[in-house]
Design a protein that fits this description.
By secondary structure, the protein is an alpha+beta fold. It has three domains: about 10-55 and about 300-370, no CATH class; about 75-190, no CATH class; about 210-260, no CATH class. The protein contains seven helices and 18 strands. It has helices at about 10-20, 30-45, 65-70, 225-230, 245-260, 315-330, 345-370, and strands spanning about 55-60, 75-80, 85-100, 120, 125-130, 145-150, 160, 170-180, 185-190, 195, 200-210, 215-220, 220-225, 270, 275-280, 290-300, 340, 345. The strands form six sheets. The protein has a six-stranded antiparallel sheet, with no helix packed on it. A three-stranded antiparallel sheet has the order 1-16-11, with no helix packed on it. Strands 10-15-14 form a three-stranded antiparallel sheet, with no helix packed on it. Strand 4 (about 120) and strand 5 form a beta hairpin. Helix 1 (about 10-20) packs across helix 6 (about 315-330) and helix 2 (about 30-45) packs across helix 6 (about 315-330). It is flat. The protein starts with 8 loop residues before the first helix and ends in a 10-residue tail after the last helix. The model is unreliable at about 210-225 (pLDDT under 50).
Length: about 375
């Protein structure tokens, strides 16, 4: 293979050295520095989506029971509310200590499974509410609570009874304060509405929405063909007497708009660093267990699999420039160094030339190496 057409990382390194003057000149760059320069060039190559760096592929995943159930779950986190805008009063409850767990208390949750505040009675104050924890004793007693509204007017030693159950769960006020957040804590649920995609995926263009009318049915079982015939030809336009290409195109656009309105695209967002595809839906975009979720993605072309990637013009040019930059930076550490024959190496010139070359390559990237951003706008 010609040195001008590298087919591997080792070939590209030899190409870079030759372009910079080897073997006539000694290139003062370590092998590790060349690896970094090549990797930096690859990062531009992939992340700026060079038109030869990406492939449009369709990834699919079957919605299993475990995946569907995971999608419905979430991570819970208690966040203190209004910690920078406290309210002030005497006898605000700061700490409660369990006296007796009581009996008969069931799960204090709403229909979404979130814990709700429980009112209290007893003590010298008022408006104290708490959020019981999920733990229960064998007899249905409550073992721990979090303060929701700290109330006011309480004193240390007050006995507080939690409403609900058999009204026999008792906590004691063991610490009070004169300032508190507007109200205590709120439990936030961070839904696990995401899939982790392969690491070579750099972008998701759309999620293909599964529909019950995939076999040609829509609008309650009426086929699109029947809708077409009833709408376009139902007014006596049978046999093509009043039918032309303009009518066909107009009706096609109408049906596409109607479909987009009734069955809008699945909302999503994708982060290529976390590799997580978040689907803005509670049910995988109306997918059921057993359905396939299909994603249209941009995927990196692997240089390990396709050797000709190493011969890409942009990749070679940027790799040479980055290596030259490292070379110039190395030489600037030594000034006025004389070589045999009275020759001196100008590290500053090598470094500045490399910076200019890199700037030019990056500025021209969108015009020379990437797909036009507005190529479908007319």
């Amino acid at each position: 293979m010609s040195i001008s057409s590298p087919q591997s990382r080792a070939d590209l390194k030899e190409y870079i050295k030759t372009k910079l003057g080897a073997p006539v000149l000694q290139i003062n760059v370590s092998d590790e520095q060349m690896d970094i320069a090549i990797d930096d060039a690859f990062q531009w190559f992939y992340e700026r989506q060079h038109f030869d760096a990406m492939e449009r592929v369709y990834l699919s995943v079957k919605v299993s029971n475990s995946l569907y159930n995971f999608f419905q779950t979430g991570e819970l986190e208690n966040i203190e509310q209004s910690d920078t805008q406290p309210v002030y009063a005497d006898g605000m409850v700061q700490t409660l200590t369990l006296v007796t767990p009581g009996t008969g208390y069931g799960p204090t949750t709403n229909t979404d499974g979130d814990m709700i505040a429980t009112t209290t009675t007893g003590g010298t104050g008022e408006k104290l509410t708490v959020t019981p924890g999920t733990a229960r004793t064998v007899d249905g007693g409550i073992t721990n609570v979090a303060l929701y509204n700290v109330g006011s007017g309480y004193t240390v030693g007050d006995q507080i009874t939690l409403d609900g159950g058999n009204n026999d769960c008792v906590f004691q006020v063991t610490e009070i304060t004169t300032s508190s957040p507007l109200y205590g804590t709120e439990e936030f649920k961070r839904q696990n509405n995401y899939l982790i995609l392969p690491k070579d995926v750099v972008g998701v263009n759309r999620i293909i929405r599964p529909r019950a009318y995939a076999a040609g049915l829509a609008f309650g079982g009426v086929p699109f063909g029947a809708l077409w015939a009833g709408t376009l030809f139902g007014a006596g336009q049978v046999g093509g007497s009043n039918f032309d290409l303009t009518s066909y195109y107009t009706m096609s656009q109408y049906l596409e708009t109607l479909e987009w309105t009734i069955f809008p695209p699945v909302g999503y967002n994708f982060n290529k660093r976390s590799h997580r595809l978040f689907i803005n839906s509670e049910d995988f975009g109306s997918s059921n267990v057993g359905d396939y979720l299909v994603m249209e993605c941009d995927v990196k072309v692997s240089a390990d699999m396709y050797d000709d990637i190493w011969n890409d013009l942009f990749l070679k040019r940027l790799s040479v420039a980055y290596t030259q930059l490292a070379w110039g930076r190395n030489l600037t550490k030594y000034s006025q160094v004389q070589l045999p024959g009275g020759i001196s190496m100008n590290g500053d010139q090598i470094y500045n030339d490399a910076k200019t070359e890199i700037s030019e390559i990056q500025e021209r990237f969108a015009l020379d190496y990437a797909d036009p951003v507005l190529d479908i706008v007319g």
